[in-house]
Amino acid sequence: MFGLSPFEMMVIGVIAVVLFGGNLPDVARKAGGIYREFRSRLNEVQREFRAAEYEATKALNPYESSKVEPDDDEEPSEPAAPKFTPPS
């Protein structure tokens, strides 16, 4: 995990216990809350960028969304144009 060996993680854990002692659960709870808030804000920004990108592509090609895709359940219909037959 994060390129750390189990020994290195254990050393970090011991240092955390020495520094924070009995407050370690509160510190971990606060760090988790900060991380959760950061992720929610980051997701919000990503959602706004995706919406802007969608609007930009829609503005570039307005006919893209008007294409009618056939349903998988329906059988394909015959083409409107006749088939090409080469001259003999």
Give a verbal description of the structure.
This protein has 88 residues and is mainly alpha-helical. The protein has a domain at 23-62. Helices cover 59% and strands 0% of the residues. It contains two helices and no strands. It has helices spanning 6-20, 24-60. It is elongated. The protein starts with 5 loop residues before the first helix and ends in a 28-residue tail after the last helix. It comes from Stieleria neptunia. One of its GO terms (cellular component) is membrane. InterPro entries: TatA/B/E. Keywords: Membrane, Protein transport, Translocation, Transmembrane, Transmembrane helix, Transport. This is Twin arginine translocase protein A.
Quick structural gist:
With 88 residues, the chain is an all-alpha fold.
Task: Please describe the topology of this protein.
Layout: H1 6-20, H2 24-60
What are the salient characteristics of this protein?
single chain, 88 residues, mainly alpha, 2 helices, 59% helix, transport, Twin arginine translocase protein A, membrane
Order of helices and strands: HH
**Sheet/helix structural class:** mainly alpha
- Work out the helix count: 2
Helix content: 55-70%
Share of β-strand residues: under 5%
Rg of Cα set: 29 Å
Biggest sheet overview: none
DSSP strand tally: 0
**Unreliable sequence segments:** none
Organism: Stieleria neptunia
Protein name: Twin arginine translocase protein A
Region (Disordered): 60-88
Membrane topology: Single-pass membrane protein
